[in-house]
Amino acid sequence: MNELHISQTQVHKLLCAKNPDAALLFLYLSAGNDPAQAEQSLGLSHTRISCAMATLRQLGLWEEKRNTPVFSGERPQYTEQDVYLAMDADKGFQSLYGEVQRVLGRNLNTEELKILLGFIRYLGLPAEVISVLVCYCKERSRAMGKLRNPSLRTIEKEAYFWAEQGIDTLEEAVAFIQNQNLRRSQLGKLMELLQIRGRNLTPGEEKYAKAWLDMGFEDGVLALAYERTCLNTGGLSWAYMNKILTRWHEAGLYTLEQVASGEKKPVPKGGSGKLGQAELTAFQKVLKEG
After folding, report:
1. 8-state DSSP, 147
2. What confidence category does residue 182 fall into, taking pLDDT thresholds of 50, 70 and 90?
3. Which of 74, 127, 178, 277 is most exposed, with the fewest beta carbons within 10 Å of its own?
4. What is the rounded CA–CA span in Å between residue 281 and residue 284?
């Protein structure tokens, strides 16, 4: 049996994803097993394997050869005739625009139908993925405190992002949305810890916050860094707190136990450094969940 090497960086990504299927599949693939045999070997359904594979790909833990389209210039200019023909002859488009109108709670005008047609013909997104995309954009708008549903122009920007990222199957869409919902929940917890209430993070603040979450610290470590920041600066200083967390990250200190013990030896990013007992216990917990 080949020796299995997993870096702390990889483990922290899997812990943050909180996806037992993805963690199990990652171990299976890292051991050199055949991806085509994963369903049978792991006893998981095709849907669960597909979602787990999508999660690993989006986490950067599995490189899968995919023909991701490259879009240049503006989208083709569709005419009213193109829309009418699609509405008349394309059953998939008929069902899609009806579903989008239902989700958004209003009738789409001709210009909006042209945009919707471009999602299928230019971006190459399947109708079922577009339906999920529209629901996701609506829910994201609600989570941001907006009362109005998103416009087709706003949804179009997200559609381009999905197409460019290869999110073109239901499994990819589900994995992406799960990751985004988890990240939103994590950001909410971090904002509460930092006593930020009644407003959204600025772009600069959100960049710091997402970077800290990606590092994979446990909540207690983030709380400790915030406490030290306030004691030394008199309040929340994003740059100061970032220096603390970056130093701990570079030293491989991700738990309160590790910080307390004063471990200073850096763990090379992406390397095969040994995992501490805290990380091993947390990783085993993820595998047992679900």
Report:
1. S
2. confident
3. 74
4. 5
Contact in structure between 69 and 163 (CB atoms under 8 Å)? yes
| Residue linked to tokens 């629901």 | 135
User: Looking at residue 35, what DSSP letter applies?
Assistant: G
Asked whether 277 and 8 are in contact (CB, 8 A), the reply is no
Tell me 195's DSSP state: T
**Which string of DSSP letters, residue by residue, matches 36-92?**
GGHHHHHT--HHHHHHHHHHHHHTTS-----------SSPP---HHHHHHHHHH-HH
Backbone φ and ψ for 281, nearest 5 degrees, come out as -65, -45
Torsional class of 81: left (φ above 0), alpha (ψ -120 to 50), beta (otherwise): alpha
Rounded CA-CA distance 116/283 in Å is: 42
Measuring CA to CA, how many Å separate 63 from each of 132, 167, 173?
Answer: 25, 14, 18
Residue 276 phi/psi, 5-degree rounding, is: -75, 165
Neighbours of 202 (CB within 10 A): 10
Q: Please tell me what DSSP assigns to residue 194.
A: T
Whole-number Å distance between alpha carbons of 232 and 228? 6
Tokens 């805290």, located at residue:
278
Place of tokens 């899997």: 14
Task: For residue 92, count other CB atoms closer than 10 A to its CB.
Answer: 13
Residue 180 CA to residue 191 CA, distance in Å, equals 16
Burial annotation 163-195 (CB, 10 A radius, 16+ → b, else e) = beebbbbbbbbbbbbbbeeebeebbeebbeebe
pLDDT in tens, 55-79: 888 888 887 666 656 566 667 889 9
Integer Cα distance of 172 and 192 in angstroms: 30
pTM score: 0.71
